[in-house]
Structure formats: C-alpha cells, structure tokens
Amino acid sequence: MSGHSKWATIKHKKAANDKARGKLFAKVLRQVEVAAREGGGDPDTNPTLRTMFQKARDASIPIDTIERAVKRGTGELEGVTYEQITYEGYAPGAVAVMVEVLTDNRNRTGAEVRNIFSKNGGSTSEPGAVAWQFDRKGQVVVPRSVDEEELMLTALDAGAEDIVDDGDSWRVTTAATDLHAVRTALDEAGIPVDSSDLVMVPQATIALDTAEAARKVLRLIDALDDHDDVQAVHANFDIPDTILETVEAG
C-alpha cells in the first residue's frame, strides 16, 4: 500500500497551515471525547482513550484542551453527544472505501456522505460489503532518518508485525492491541515518532496505473476527508510512484 501511504504523508505535510490544523484539532478532540464517554476518562484503563490522547499530543494539541475534551466525554463538562458510524462504498475503479464518522445528526451526515460518493463517481454500499476486505491494525509512522536496525530491534521486540520503507518515513504495523506497547517502546528508546493511530489495512490493493484513474479516486477521498464529521477514510488503492508524482505536479 506504498502509494496510498505516500499520498497520506503528502496530505499530512500539506495540512500544516492554520486552517487545516484547526480542522484536524476539532476532529481529534472529538475522537478523544467519544473514547472517554465509552470507556471512561482514565487512559490507563481505557486503551482507546490512551491511543486518542497520544494522537492529540502528536498533533500538538495543548494538554489542557485535551483534558477538557476528556471531561466533556465523561460528563464533567457539558458537551454534544456524538454517534460513531462507518459508511462503506466504492470509488471509481472498484476501489473499496471505508469512512469513519462521528456525528450528532445521523440523517444529515449520512445524506452528505452519500452525496459526496455520488458527485465523485462512487457509490455507497450495504454494511459489511466492504469491511471484510480490511483488518484493524495499529500503525506508527517514524522519520526516515531513524536507523533501520535500531528501529527493527526495538519495534519487533515490542511486538510489531512489520516495518516498511515509505520513502520519507518508516511505517510500523502492529496488531491493534499492541499499538500502545510498540509506541511506548519507541518512546523509551528515544526514537522519534511522527504519528501513531489505529487504521484499517486492506488485505489486497488495486493498482491505479494512470494519472486519470488516480485523480478520480483521490478526488473522492479528499472530498470525504474534508467533511467535518469524517474522522478517517480507508481505501485499498495503490498508486505507483511515477503516477503519484504526475498527480502531485498538477
């Protein structure tokens, strides 16, 4: 899934501007809130909250802002109640797509997500039609400057399943339940981490071997990503480096 991962890295770098950061902050804090509501406000006993708390810290969200989100989730502070929903569908080229949302209005968000699929050449599908093609995994992104041998020794010893060179970074994959242990081991070893999160990893990928095909899929992915209620978009496309460079160039 190198092409997909590289596209995600490119998007991450482009998100450095203030407007994009503000949108990222809002989405991550919503995830913190929901994790606290569903599993309690103590990260030591709530693994999901622990992961989301760390994700918020990786995004440079101030600690007091994160703690207020936790309190909204536990009911100590007044807040909106969000519902978790996953929409499934297909992008152009039969690319499978999973869209994770947190919303306070299921009907509004559902209609808007379906509209985004339709306007961008895709279609939504019934629950379960796409999900079987993905596995829930932990993923840690580490700067490429980190020594490969040191990273392998530390990550694999802590339970990592795989380490992949994504060009500008290392992508460490773990079982979902091992994400915290691997992240902690990297932190304790002094290995810098760009991000760590739970993701849906496709069991197989579809190659987008023309710039036109890649643009069609990425147009849908970007439109979904841009929706305020959408927390994550997962898809099973792969874009060869040469095609990705063409798309990036314009």
Task: Quickly list its features.
Alpha-Beta Plaits; 10 strands; alpha+beta; Arc Repressor Mutant, subunit A; four-stranded antiparallel sheet; about 250 residues
Describe the fold and architecture.
With 250 residues, the protein is α+β, with helices and mostly antiparallel strands. It folds into three domains: 2-74, Integrase, N-terminal zinc-binding domain (Arc Repressor Mutant, subunit A, Orthogonal Bundle), CATH 1.10.10; 83-132 and 204-249, Alpha-Beta Plaits, CATH 3.30.70; 134-202, Alpha-Beta Plaits. Helices cover 47% and strands 24% of the residues. It is globular. The protein starts with a helix and ends with a helix.
How do the strands and helices of this protein lay out in sequence?
Layout: H1 2-14, H2 18-39, H3 47-58, H4 63-74, E1 83-91, E2 95-103, H5 106-119, E3 123-125, E4 134-143, H6 148-157, E5 162-165, E6 169-175, H7 179-188, E7 195-202, E8 206-207, H8 211-225, E9 230-235, E10 237-238, H9 241-249
